[in-house]
Amino acid sequence: MVRRFTGPIGSLNDAWKAQRVVWVVCLDCGHTARLDPRTLISRLGQELSDLPFDQLERRARFTCRRCRRRRVGFLPHYLPWGALR
């Protein structure tokens, strides 16, 4: 499989181009979820998909399923989509 995107992964669009999933991490309790960036882009909208992850953390309104707080962080995963099934 040829990876078309070779730059750093700093936004949801970058993760989508590199075909990488994104970890969403609760900064309060440590709960994690592995999400497809295509799902996040459709949920958040195209205008937020170009924001860097640190700005997206402040703008996105995700609620942790474990502690119900709204402090989350985003981390790109290093394995491609096909390897995670």
Structure summary, number of beta strands: 3
Uncertain residue ranges: none
Structural category is alpha+beta
Q: The biggest beta sheet, please?
A: 3 strands, antiparallel
N- to C-terminal distance: 16 Å
Number of domains: 1
Round the Cα radius of gyration to an integer and report it: 13 Å
Strand content: 15-25%
| Series of H and E elements | HEEHHHE
Trace the largest sheet across and list its strands: 2-1-3
Rough shape?
globular
Report the average pLDDT across residues: 86
Residue share in helices?
A: 25-40%
What is the count of DSSP helices, taking H or I runs of 4+ residues? 4
Describe the model.
The chain is α+β, with helices and mostly antiparallel strands and 85 residues long. It has one domain (12-79). It is built from four helices and three strands; from the N terminus they run αββαααβ. It has a three-stranded antiparallel sheet with strand order 2-1-3. A hairpin with a 5-residue loop joins β1 (20-26) and β2 (32-35). The model has no long low-confidence stretch (mean pLDDT 86).
